[in-house]
Specification:
Largest sheet of chain A: 9 strands, mixed
Oligomer: heterodimer
Order of helices and strands of chain A: HHEEHEEHEHEEEHEEEHHHHEEHH
CATH class of chain B: Alpha Beta
Shape of chain A: elongated
Number of helices of chain A: 12
CATH topology of chain B: Rossmann fold
Distance between the termini of chain B: 23 Å
Distance between the termini of chain A: 30 Å
Shape of chain B: globular
Structural class of chain B: alpha/beta
Helix content of chain B: 25-40%
Number of strands of chain A: 13
Strand content of chain A: 15-25%
Number of domains of chain B: 1
Radius of gyration of chain A: 31 Å
Number of domains of chain A: 2
Strand order of the largest sheet of chain B: 6-7-8-3-9-10
Number of helices of chain B: 8
Helix content of chain A: 40-55%
Radius of gyration of chain B: 18 Å
């Protein structure tokens, strides 16, 4: 235990120099953990919001449906086969019908997607119940706040919508906005109008048909249903995960540079130590300290910087992380347009693995950059070290 | 060869290459030191005093010849074996004291015992004893920068003798001290030499040191030109 004891004495004896390094290193520690936690939170928050409001526990798509090809949408619908209808009856799945439409708000023309949803469904967190309860002759409709803002719509407005029936004929009628929903998921908001499923089926002459079926989370459906393709969550969430991944890679480059800067500080300190403490090293050699012990001492001194940085970082990092977990990181309005389902604040997620992994990483890298100049010391001749020279 | 010698050099040569030329620091040095001697190497600068001390102290290797210290041939020792020889049997006192600046007086003196893994209680007793010998027990908690030059050198002496080495090597120990402090240091070392039987070997030009020596070895251009025993009071006491 002599080496850790001497190393601790040495770095505590260096006072300001030690604490400056520890502070710089602790910034790197805290920043890496905080920001990695934010990215983890971004992933989990965005994924969870999409699961709750859009993806459910997976989806069956009509074989011709392609979410990225709007031209194929007119053909992407069909009757629900019996093997899937059972899921719908049991409440394990809810059908959604999707059709092209054109909205005419205040004399403008907006292309929209008309989405029919069962007002009684409990699978998606979409306030569809109001579509059933709303009275009046015009079909009730729910829109998101982004859509309402884009079209200049408010609750109670009546607006004309045109669509094409299954036979190819165009039709139009007025719909009434019964709710402007506030959702963090732009995927169920931008350019979309939610209507009662049966009403849309009637309007489009697609009785009993659907474009997709959304499964309840945890529910299992049959495989190999003719004319329908099962899409699991890995597929449905791949866009959001790709976005998060891209952000994480960008963030990782930033962390790499932060870590490199902190390591440079440690390396610089160690090299300076070698330069300034040659005589001290020579004295230690004269007193019988072996080369291995001197390498161990200087490496340990560097590693202890990381240990102290972890302690110092914990002092201000834990309250900061706790604050962010409770209050979240306020997001700008512009985040809405990035495609993330995040809401007004991002709540970071810190796992034991993240904290432990970061600690081990910083400790390992600090130890390595401390070892390199220490190894150089070991090659110094005692007589030259005592004279303050370098071999 | 003298079998009873604690330190023995045979045909010792040390050459430093300097570019295309070379400097002969030691040339055919044959010396023997018995246990308990209070001896000094004297001579002008560049005569090889420090080089000889470094080789005896296993800090450096000879170019030719042989050095035997405590029955070990220095020139064949590995780095680890040389470090062990120094840690167990040799204490060093330097001209510039070489105290470890971030440690207290106690910790500086304790350092050699830590390397020897001495038990904590034994370590504390030995350190306080050594500080008592040099009259600095009351400054155990001080840092080196709070001490005078004479006090620093006394701490260095305590550090050199705390492990009770057989040999203490002192390179110009009084060069940075005034006359009063030099005398105190020399008295202290002479007393330790008497009390512990430790061999002291000095390199010095200081007449005050020379006056205390029991044996004076004069080096000129790396050669031993004179080796004489003196009648210092201590030697007179120890003479059979």
């Amino acid at each position: 235990m002599i080496i850790p004891r001497l190393a601790l004495r040495n770095i505590l004896g260096a006072r300001v120099r030690t604490w400056l390094n520890v502070l710089v290193l602790s910034f790197a520690f805290v920043a890496i953990i905080i920001f990695q936690g934010l990215y983890k939170g971004l992933d989990e928050q965005a994924s969870q919001a999409k699961i709750e409001t859009e993806c459910g526990g997976g989806q069956y798509w009509h074989a011709r449906y392609d979410a990225y090809d709007s031209l194929s949408l007119d053909e992407a619908h069909g009757p629900i086969p019996e093997s899937l209808a059972g899921l719908v009856r049991r409440g394990d799945a809810t059908p959604i019908l999707i059709a092209h439409g054109t909205l005419y708000p205040r004399g403008r023309i907006l292309p929209v997607l008309l989405k029919g949803i069962d007002p009684a469904q409990k699978i998606l967190s979409i306030p569809a119940g109001l579509l059933e309860r709303a009275g009046g002759p015009d079909p009730p409709a729910v829109v998101g706040r982004r859509m309402a803002k884009a079209a200049g719509l408010t609750v109670g407005d009546t607006v004309t919508v045109r669509w094409r029936e299954t036979g190819g004929a165009f039709n139009a009628l007025d719909i009434r906005i019964v709710l402007v929903m506030s959702t963090s998921n732009p995927g169920i908001d931008n350019g979309q109008i939610w209507l009662p499923l049966e009403r849309l089926r009637t309007m489009t002459r697609m009785e009993g048909q659907a474009t997709i079926l959304v499964l309840r989370p945890g529910a299992a459906g049959p495989s190999g249903v003719p004319g329908w393709e099962y899409k699991d969550l890995d597929f449905l969430l791949q866009d959001i995960r790709s976005l998060v991944h891209a952000k994480t890679v960008g963030g990782s480059i930033l962390y790499f540079f932060m870590l490199v800067l902190a390591m440079l500080a440690i390396f610089d300190t160690q090299v300076l130590s070698v330069f300034r403490r040659r005589k001290e090293i020579g004295t230690m050699m004269a007193m019988g300290m072996t080369r291995a012990r001197i390498i161990g001492l200087f490496t340990m001194e560097g590693a202890l910087h990381a240990v102290l940085a972890a302690v110092v970082g914990a002092v201000y990092g834990i309250p900061l992380a706790a604050y962010l977990v409770t209050r979240g990181w306020a997001l700008p309005e512009s985040m809405d347009s990035y495609g993330y389902a995040l809401g007004r604040a991002l709540f970071p997620v810190y796992s034991a693995g993240l904290v432990l992994g970061t600690t081990v990483l910083v400790l390992a890298v600090t130890t390595l950059v401390s070892y390199l100049p220490a190894r150089k010391i070991s090659r110094m001749k005692p007589t030259e070290a005592l004279r303050g020279k370098r071999s | 060869m003298q079998d009873s010698a604690q330190i023995q050099t045979e045909n010792l040569v040390k050459i430093y290459p300097m570019g295309i030329s070379r400097i002969v620091a030691l040339n055919d040095v044959n010396l023997a030191f018995r246990a308990g001697e209070f001896a000094g190497l004297v001579g002008p600068s560049g005569s090889g005093k420090t080089t000889l001390l470094n080789i005896i102290g296993s800090l450096d290797l000879p170019t030719e010849g042989s050095v035997r210290v405590m029955d070990r041939k220095v020139e064949i020792l590995t780095h680890k074996q040389a470090a062990r020889l120094r840690s167990r049997h040799i204490g060093f006192i330097f001209q510039t004291f070489n105290l470890l600046p971030v440690y207290t007086v106690f910790e500086n003196v304790e350092f050699p015992l830590l390397l020897l893994k001495t038990a904590a209680a034994e370590r504390k007793t030995a350190v306080m004893d050594a500080l008592e010998w040099v009259g600095l027990a009351d400054r155990a908690r001080s840092k080196p920068n709070e001490l005078s030059g004479g006090q620093c050198q006394r701490v260095a002496i305590a550090r050199a003798v705390v492990k009770r080495p057989e040999i203490v090597i002192a390179d110009e120990p009084t060069a940075n001290l005034d006359a009063e402090n030099s005398h105190r240091i020399l008295d202290t070392m002479q007393e330790l030499n008497s009390r512990l039987g430790t061999t002291f070997i000095f390199a010095t030009h200081d007449q005050k040191v020379i006056d205390h020596l029991g044996r004076i070895i004069t080096l000129v251009d790396g050669r031993v030109v004179k080796d004489e025993m003196t009648a210092s009071p201590r030697d007179e006491r120890r003479a059979p």
